[in-house]
Amino acid sequence: MHLLLCLLLGHFLGDFPLQTNHVFAAKIRGWPGVALHAGLVGGITMLLIWPYGLAVIAGVAVVTVLHGAIDQAKIVITRKKPGFPISAFLLDQGIHLGLLVLLAYWAGFPELNQKDWSPWLSGTYIFDSLVRLYLDPKAIAVALAYVISLFFGVIWVQTFTVSRVGSPGSGLWLSPLEKWAGIAERGLITTGVWFSNLPLLLLGFSLPFIVHYVSWRNWMSLRFFLTRTAASFLLSVAVGLGLKLMS
User: Fold this and answer.
1) 205 exposed, middle or buried (CB, 10 Å; 0-12, 13-18, 19+)?
2) Domain count, the chain
3) Of 29, 86, 189, 201, whose CB neighbour count within 10 A is largest?
4) Which residue, among 44, 42, 45, has the nearest Cα to 4 in the 3D structure?
5) Which domain holds residue 44?
6) Is 130 part of any domain?
7) Do the domain assignments include residue 171?
8) What are the tens digits of pLDDT across the range 120-129?
9) Residue 122 within any structural domain of the chain
10) pLDDT, tens digit, for every residue of 206-244?
11) What is the pTM assigned to this prediction?
């Protein structure tokens, strides 16, 4: 399970927080941008799974090439048929994740032996703590959950809302305020649900309404706002419940 969790964490890190607006724009311009994006996804994934050996690293390299091919095909299809519905977004992610599950299955779902890592422990508190966190599947699962809630949520919420309500005029591009307010909101709600912390929940639930009142109400329809807010709430609550069940 540790290998699969590391593969998934590498994918979600590379496909969302590391896919900045500049990387996304480069993807749309042509294959060099697609190669850059796929390389970032593959690179961060290899950093997470390198202790599993050359065979798994080679498998990640193959998946990285396929990731680029899938994204290039998606761009070509989108150009011919504008619009990117939520079903297409989920299908795209499902194919990427399916390949990673197949890779972990091919590798035999190996686990790292923590005793083999004792020579790496240097007696330095910070370094040794990082090594132990890396070896702990639950720690990797927590990191994965927060990447999904915070950063996957940026695209999920906007894609879902546009599919259901239509574009408010700005398409899928978010202003920095919209993006980081949503990230903060989902982080607060996810943590509040996980630890059953009412103040964090109240703050997370109220944040989008405060920001909407301050800066968004002049252009965003109420239906668009409520749909996007509900999608964000549901994702963060679901991830928080998942963490609660795991702990």
Assistant:
1) middle
2) 2
3) 189
4) 45
5) 1-109
6) no
7) yes
8) 666 777 888 8
9) no
10) 998 888 777 655 556 778 888 989 999 999 999 999 999
11) 0.91
